[in-house]
């Protein structure tokens, strides 16, 4: 990685200032019959370079929480702070800017544009941010080399395997050097071997390059390799578990 991407190793401690603060998050939906409470008083902090796994049974609120952290949804009540910024105090234009520049998204279904090349898919965050063609090509080239897909730029996503498509999604997530990478079941569509390879890439980005990663997963074996596990149940934090290293 290059200095332009600022992917440098970091020494972490519990005294590091939080890069993310989740404060008193509630989320509910109104149906014709009743109000459905999805999240109830969620509170936690994440420091730079930490790898946090969010686990829990289906319907526990994992993906809803990740969407709120990623500003794709708004809470009914509560606050999200990223780098000290109260994100939901921003107007829509500034919130969209923060979302594109401070948050990288990795989805279970990859969310790639099949009619566009791999390279163009990876460039999208930089195109939205107005980065020059020369700069975004330099960034893409170095990230693709790191992730082992430097020879796939001219392919269309549907020509690639699932693992390769997820590497493309990871590369896209890294393009604007985000403060936080949010991964929603990133290995869910992959076989065991390929899923482990993708997870190992995420782990390497955290441990070697100081990337902050929050991952929703149903896979307990992968969760146990994170730095910390947040267990959700019925929309509440049941417990937190720090993994010994």
How would you explain this protein's 3D organization?
There is one protein chain. Helices cover 32% and strands 27% of the residues. The chain has helices at residues 62-69, 92-102, 118-129, 133-146, 162-174, 192-207, 220-223; strands spanning 18-30, 35-47, 51-55, 77-82, 85-86, 103-107, 180-184, 213-216, 228-233, 236-242. The chain has a 6-stranded mixed β-sheet with strand order 6-7-8-3-9-10. A 4-stranded antiparallel β-sheet has the order 2-1-4-5, with helices on one face. Strand 4 (77-82) and strand 5 (85-86) form a beta hairpin. The longest helix is centred in the last third of the chain and has 16 residues, at 192-207. The chain is globular and about 50 Å long. The two termini are 25 Å apart. The relative contact order is 0.20. Residues 1-14 have low confidence and may be disordered. Belongs to the ABC transporter superfamily. Residues 20-243 form the ABC transporter domain. One of its GO terms (molecular function) is ATP hydrolysis activity.
